[in-house]
Design brief:
- The strands form 3 sheets. Strands 1-2 form a two-stranded antiparallel ribbon.
- Helix content is 59%, strand content 13%.
- The protein has helices at residues 6-14, 25-42, 64-75, 81-86, 89-102, 127-142, 152-163, 172-177, 179-187, 192-216, and strands spanning 15-16, 21-22, 46-49, 52-55, 106-113, 117-124.
- The protein starts with 5 loop residues before the first helix and ends with a helix.
- The protein has 217 residues and is an alpha+beta fold.
């Protein structure tokens, strides 16, 4: 893997390098799915057609995870962006992990807890790669350059991790302080970014309601 895809970069940012784990696989799955759709937008391979995702262009992207998603979009009935972000997010996450493991970016440790529950632990082989990706987000969010001058991939990456409030990368304080800049960066990433943001807000509300009900009972 000579160049990391947008989903790969978001995955590495979500890794707890020291503990060799993902803090929240459900959240990361949605992030990866949104990043894959955004990557296809930036490559000109999908576009918006009346609020739904449509394939544009022809031929493979050269990335197996992206090509699988592209083929899936092409053979199924049209869906809205939020629907594609949600659909099979776990499958896309696991496919990306296998790809990164094969490429030598991570060493994926798989096991079963108590012999029943599957466990997947990513060991990042070169933590410096994560630091470089993190630095690109930091520069995009806090750097002196106008949002319009930020590299398109870095702009999309920053907007994506902000959309899911990825801990340790973009804090709640960062989101409030740089709200307008995050919006500007997100506008360059296509419709998957606001769809991911909306979906995450809905899921957060559901979790909060469930926690409140549990506490009340």
């Amino acid at each position: 893997m000579t160049e990391l895809s947008l989903p790969a970069k978001t995955y590495l940012l979500a890794c707890d390098v020291g503990a060799a784990k993902l803090r929240d696989r459900a959240r990361v799955g949605l992030l990866i799915r949104g990043a894959a759709l955004t990557d296809l937008v930036l490559r000109g391979r999908v576009t918006d057609a009346n609020g739904r995702v449509a394939v544009s262009g022809a031929g493979p992207t050269g990335d197996l995870v992206l090509d699988e998603l592209l083929a899936e979009i092409g053979r199924e009935s049209p869906r809205k962006w939020k629907g594609w972000v949600r659909k099979d997010a776990r499958g896309t996450l696991e496919a990306l992990e296998s790809q990164l493991d094969t490429a030598g970016v991570i060493d994926l440790k798989t096991a079963r807890i108590l012999g029943l529950f599957p466990s997947r632990r990513p060991v990042v082989r070169d933590p410096a790669v994560v630091e470089r990706v993190r630095a690109s987000v930091d520069q995009a969010l806090r750097g002196p350059a106008p949002a319009s001058d930020v590299d398109t991939v870095d702009a999309a990456l920053t907007a994506l991790v902000a959309a899911v409030e990825l801990r340790g990368v973009v804090s709640g304080r960062d989101r409030r302080r740089h709200r307008d800049r995050i919006e500007e960066l997100g506008e360059r990433g296509g419709d998957a970014v606001p769809a991911l943001r909306k979906l995450f807000r809905e899921l957060r509300a559901v979790r909060a309601s469930a926690a409140s009900s549990s506490g009340g009972s």
